[in-house]
Every structure is written in structure tokens, then in C-alpha cells.
Specification:
mainly beta
Length: about 140
Amino acid sequence: WYVIAHIPSWPERHAYDAVESYRLLPDGRIQTDFRYRKGSFDAKEDTMHPVATVRPDTGNAVWGMQFFWPIEAEYVIAYLDDAYQTTIIGRSKRDYVWIMARVPCLSDSAYAKLAERVAALGYTESLRKVPQRCG
């Protein structure tokens, strides 16, 4: 999933080329690989590898994302389109949010619709568009 825009956490506030991928582990947890470049397309690629646990009785929509033990950050799948091409990940605190897509760049109208959804979810901070290589 390409990170199209976000209200970023501290490590990703200058991210370029941000991509997050997931794979199911044999124990049911989800291995997450987040890669990005800090400050420019030419910067060295950095990675983070948190592991998520799906919280029971949430329809698989609420995860505990663990970057380091024992703390798990809430990760809520707030929106997923029917074609499984765009998603909005947020938090109950409305402090961070991520718009992600299966492609690195969205049309202006598709982005605007997702940004409107973010606002409707109660986020008030401005979104930062993540620079992505679009072509």
C-alpha cells in the first residue's frame, strides 16, 4: 500500500516514497514492513517492521500495532473501498491518519473524496501529501 497522505507520526513527517506491506504470520499476527525515504527521493531507504495483532470482535478492523514491546498503538481500518484499492487508517484519538492506495498516485478527484472522508471522521489537522514517484 502506497501512503498517499497522512497526519504523520514523528518518524514519517518527512517521508518520501512511503510504502507499507503486510503478511499474515503463522501465529495469526500481521508482519508489517514500512519503507520510506527521509526528506527526498534520493535519500537512503529506511524501514520499520512492527507486528500487528487483530483485536477480537472488531471485524478485523482494529489492530494493535507493536513497534516495540510492550506498547501497542491502535490502528483502525476506518475505510476500505469495495474494490480494495484505497483505504483510510486512523486512530480513535484522531491524532494520526493515513490515506493509502494500491497505486502511488491518485487523481485529484479521488484524493479529494478520501480527504473529505478523513474530515468527516473528525480529523482537523491538515493532511500532508507524501511525495511518490508517479510514473
